[in-house]
Amino acid sequence: MNSESRKRIRNLVIGALLTALGILIPMIMPAKIVIGPASFTLASHVPVMAAMFFSPYLTALVAVGTTLGFFISVPVPLIWMRAATHIVVMTAGAWFLKKSPDLVDKKVKLQVFNLILDVFHAGLEALVVLAFYRIGFADTDPQALNNLLLLVFFGGIVHSFVDFNLAFGLCKLLNKIYFVDVFKNAKLKALAE
Description:
mainly alpha, two-stranded antiparallel sheet, 78% helix, 4% strand
């Protein structure tokens, strides 16, 4: 078996494990806040954000799997639609990390990337909530909708920021025993310079 086949099999196994975690976390995590259609489950983004440190393709697959996890564990369609935004946001983040792996060695730039990703993530989720109410799937008064949008947006930024750092720490630790693509590529890029 050549190294490319081994890498594909390794990523398939890692993707399966991250997807399983992504399904399990919303089901069993005791640290969960649900306020109407807004929900914040500690570490719920960690599996899909950890996948970003491997590859965009793996990230997309894990995002689909974690969306199914919310579908199974949380009986709120709006939360499922918010989770589906991770397919776009996290895959874009993974693509950027693939193009700029050296970010993992630059703490400030990594946190700037994290914040930009969080704003994009929370903004897209807030747009989904806005569309859900504007199209007429549910009804609420304008002030309550504005409060909900602010909660989803700013709460989402904080939640995503924390989960990204948890995922980064997990991948950094994992990289000490088994190489993680972005960390390996950052090291190769540093050696080439």
